[in-house]
Input
Amino acid sequence: MSYRDVLVQRIKEAGQELIDRAESMISSDTDAITDFDIYIHLPTTRECTEFPTIQWNTVVVNKNTMKRLREE
Output
């Protein structure tokens, strides 16, 4: 398999992984989300010595501060 074909396959697998994990990436009780980032790391070697990884980061507003500011 060519390097391009390997990379294309890994991209497709990462896309499917995002679809499969979408519901669990954001808890149903998470609110006040201000930012959400997804990082996908695809190793650049053709050998499978390192697995591709997906990392996500959810940023939320501090609701206690927001509540205090509303009351002032």
Notes: The longest strand covers residues 33-41. The mean pLDDT is 91. The two ends are 64 Å apart (CA to CA).
